[in-house]
Amino acid sequence: MQVVTYSSFRKNLKSALDQVTEDGELVIINRSENKNVVLLSLNEYNSILETLHLLSTENNRDRLLKAVERSKKNLYESHDLIGD
Fold first, then answer.
1. Which of 27, 29, 50, 77 would bridge 37 by S-S if both were Cys, CB 3.0 to 4.6 A apart?
2. Listed residue (14, 74, 71) closest to 39, CA to CA
3. What range defines the domain where residue 28 resides?
4. Are residues 49 and 31 in the same domain?
5. Structure pTM?
């Protein structure tokens, strides 16, 4: 995560945007009156929204957490994919 002033961000806009999109870097832009902004890539934003959606209901959250625990304990089955 990088924290920059608004002036610095404006001067280095392309570089900052490249860092965000190519390196997955988060940039916090400090502005006056504590009106700060977080800049993140669309991919990262969509990933956050998807995670929030998957965890939005108690039943789904419990199923996902149990599946992660089973995976950590190698308690899963492997299957071949059905071909075309």
1. 29
2. 14
3. 2-40
4. no
5. 0.69
